[in-house]
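User: structure tokens for this one?
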Amino acid sequence: MIGYQMVGSNQYEKAIAYYDALLGELGATRMMEEKGKFVAWSQGDSATQATAFCVCKPDDNKEASVGNGVMTAFSAPDAKKVDALYAKAIELGGTCEGKPGPRGEGGFYAGYCRDLDGNKFNFFCIQDANG
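Assistant:
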């Protein structure tokens, strides 16, 4: 249903390096790019086959800002990968918004971060409710 998610950046080159390293841990690669304007990463072969995550410079040339209540969620295969991705995000200069762990009922497991521009995201998986 969702084709892509886009966030703006005021530190464009740093943001690109951050997400190259971080999303590479999920096997994502750059699938589309317009030099100096945006980069899109995906785990699929084309824009029609997989959801993408994009970082851009705002088209209106104003400062990018984070949304209140806005978050991107990246799916991970298991809790071990959630933990590793969360640690990588922090290592690369992101900030903690909630350490990895179970949330609520139903086996939802997630770790929450903010990127270099303050955009909120998480890594999550759905585990067996017993562990």
